[in-house]
Amino acid sequence: MKKTQAYIQENKDRFLEELLGLLRIPSVSADPAFKASVAETAKLVAQHLKKAGVPKVEVCKTAGHPIVYGEYIQDKKLLTVLVYGHYDVQPADPVELWDTPPFEPVIKKTKRHPQGAIFARGACDDKGQVFMHIKAFEAMRKSKNIPCNIKFMIEGEEEVGSVNLEKFCKKEKKKLACDMVLISDTSILDNKVPSITTGLRGLTYLEVEVTGPNRDLHSGVYGGAVANPINVLAKMIADLQNKRGEITIPGFYDDVDIVSKEERKAMNQAPYDEKAYMRDLGVKALLGEKGYTTLERTSIRPTLDVNGIWGGYTGDGAKTVLPSKAFAKSSMRLVPHQDPVKIFKLFKQHFEAVAPAYVKVKITPHHGGDAAVTPTDSAEYKAAEWAMTQTFGKAPIPVRSGGSIPIVALFETVLNAKSVLLGFGLDSDAIHSPNEHFGLFNFYKGIETIPYFYQQYAVLKQKK
Ligand code: BES
Ligand code: MN
Ligand code: MN
Fold first, then answer.
1. What does the DSSP 8-state code read for residue 219?
2. In the annotation, is 158 catalytic?
3. How do residues 179-232 score in pLDDT, each as one tens digit?
4. Nearest ligand (C-alpha, residue 369)
5. Which CATH architecture has domain 202-256+302-369?
6. Are 388 and 189 in contact (CB under 8 A)?
7. Ligand with minimal distance to 30 CA
8. Which of 126, 369, 432, 449 lies at a 20 to 30 A Cα distance from 16?
9. Taking the complete model, does pTM exceed 0.70, yes or no?
10. Could you say which ligand is closest to the alpha carbon of residue 403?
11. Catalytic annotation, pick one of 155, 158, 370, 436
C-alpha cells in the first residue's frame, strides 16, 4: 500500500491535467447537438482505462450514447468489484450565469475548498469522481497491489435516465457478474466530516399540459369570462401541498417506509448548521414538511417539486393574450417502498379528478426509478468505512441522500449485487448548477481512499 500511495503523490499533477482534458469535452447527453462530443468522451474514457492498465476495454454501442466497459480479471477465485459511473453531464445552461466557461476548466479557491477546486460542468458529477477510480486503478496496477478482479462500466446516459444501460445490464448479466458495485457519484458532509451514502431517493418525473379555449384569445375581449389555463394550472399546483407541507394526492404516503425513532435520532446526530445552510443558499427561512428536520426532509421523506412552468407570452414587451395552453414539468422524490409507476398513476388520477370543467389536462410520464437503501453491517460497507478512516483520520457517518441514481435499485434486482456509495463531492459543489466544481482535496482523497477499500474488502469478504 505504501508504494501505491507514493505513486499517487508522485503523479498528482499529471492526474489533474488529464482530468482537465476530460472536462474540456462537452458530453451533454440530453442535447442531440452534443452527440459527437459524447461519443468522443466515451473514446477518451476508454483510452484512459487502457493507459491505466485495464487489459480489456470496449466502447459498447447502444440505441443512445455508448457505454464504456473494461475488465481486469486476474483469477476467477478472487472477488469481483464492478465500478459504475457516468461520463455524461447535465446541460450547462444558463451559460451566462457561469463565472468562467463551463467546458474550460479552471482552478479557484472557495470557502469550502481553501486548497482549490476545479470549476467545470461534470467536475464533480461525475467525470471527476469516475476519474478517481481510473487513477486509483493505475496506481494499484503500477504498484502491483490489486487484490480483486475489477470491472468498469461507465455510461453516457445517467443524466437522462439510464434507459439503455438498463437494457445492457439485462442482456449482459454474465459479463457484468460481480460481488458488489462500487460507485462514486454522491457526496460527503464536509471535508472534515467524512460520510458514506446509505440511501438514495426514487423518482417519478412527469409533464402536465392544461388546455383551456381552443386558441389564444384577446385578454380584453374574452378576459373575465373564459378560464385562463395558466391561472388554473398555478392553482392546481399550489393545491398539491397543504399548509403542513404535505402532499395532498390521495394515497401518496400509503407505502412510505416509516423510519424508527431511534434511526431518526441517530441520523440527526450528523453535524448540521442551519444558519450556514441558509446563508449558503441566500434565504432567510426554510420551508418543508412539518414535523421533520431539514436532514429528514431531504432524505427519508418524499417530495413534490415543479421543475419548470411555461405558457402564454414570455417574449420582450407585453402581449395581452389569454393563452390556450399551460405546461409544467414536475418531479417527485420517493422513498423506499414507494413505486414510481404507482405514484405516476396516483398523480394522474388526482390531477384529472380535480381539474375543473373549463380545462382539459394531459399528463405524460418521463423517466423514473426506485429508491435504494444499502446495509451498514455488510463487509462492503465496513470496508468502505475502514478505507475512509485511513485517509480522513476519522470514521465516516452513514447518511441517506436525497438524490437519485435509479440504476442502483436495478443492480440489485438484475445483477443481484449491492452497491457501496463511496462519493467524495460536497452538496455545495453546485452540481447541475452554474459554476459546478470539485475540490482538489476531494479528488485526491478519493484516489487515495479507493485502494484501501479494495484491500479491506478482500480481507473482510474472502471467497471460499
Ligand atoms: N450524482 C447524481 C445523484 C446524486 C447527487 C446523488 C448528489 C446524491 C447526491 C446523479 O447524477 C443525478 O443527478 N441523478 C438525477 C436522477 C437522474 C434520473 C436524472 C437526480 O437525482 O436528479
Ligand atoms: Mn451523477
Ligand atoms: Mn447528475
1. T
2. yes
3. 999 999 999 999 999 999 999 999 999 999 999 999 999 999 999 999 999 999
4. 1
5. 2-Layer Sandwich (3.30)
6. no
7. 1
8. 432
9. yes
10. 1
11. 158
CA of 186 to the centre of ligand 3 (A): 9
Ligand 3 center–CA 37 separation, angstroms:
18
Q: How many residues does the chain have?
A: 464
Is residue 462's pLDDT more than 90? Answer: no
Annotated catalytic residue within 18, 88, 125, 185? 88
**CB of 323 within 8 A of CB of 216?**
yes
**Sheet containing 117-119: which strands, arranged edge to edge?**
106-108, 117-119, 437-439
- Residue 2 C-alpha cell reads as 505504501
458 — phi, psi (to 5°)? -65, -35
Query: What Cα–Cα distance (Å) separates residue 131 from each residue in 17, 25, 45, 330, 410?
Result: 11, 14, 9, 32, 24
Q: 355: CA distance to ligand 2 center in Å? A: 36
- Per domain, the residue ranges of the chain are 2-200+371-463, 202-256+302-369
Ion ligand 2: protein residues whose beta carbon lies under 5 Å:
125-126, 185
| Closest C-alpha to ligand 1, atom 10 | 405
- The residues near 118 (Cβ < 8 Å, ≥ 6 apart) are 16, 19, 20, 23, 105, 106, 107, 128, 437, 438, 440, 443
Task: Supply the residue whose CA is at minimum distance from atom 9 of ligand 1.
Answer: 186
